[in-house]
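TASK: fixed-backbone design
INPUT:
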């Protein structure tokens, strides 16, 4: 399924990201993924990453065609934050173990 991001609507502290899902030979499906913006702040994730997080969630879930409303949960954001922390730790470890350059004479 190909996903197309259409934009978002915001009411107070909740964003509703809208997507169309297109599969060749089938009618277009409409999806809305809601997210509480406080979770982005709590997990230190930029709000501009919302659409890609929602698209990833839609692409990774198996759902019935009539299930068009999905919620981006704290677990989804925590998984991203944990993955980033692990990647940062690996990079730091590689820097610590990298051979040091000797100053040229």
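OUTPUT:
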């Amino acid at each position: 399924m190909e996903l197309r991001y259409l934009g978002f609507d915001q009411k107070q502290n909740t964003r509703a990201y809208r997507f169309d899902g297109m599969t060749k030979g089938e009618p277009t499906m409409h999806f809305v993924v809601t997210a509480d913006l406080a979770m982005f702040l709590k997990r230190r994730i930029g709000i501009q990453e919302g659409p890609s997080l929602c698209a990833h969630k839609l692409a990774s879930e198996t759902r019935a065609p009539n299930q068009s409303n999905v919620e981006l949960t704290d677990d989804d954001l925590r998984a991203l934050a944990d993955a980033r922390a692990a990647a940062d730790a690996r990079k730091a470890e590689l820097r610590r173990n990298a051979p040091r350059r000797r100053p040229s004479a």
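COMMENT: Residues 2-97 form one domain.
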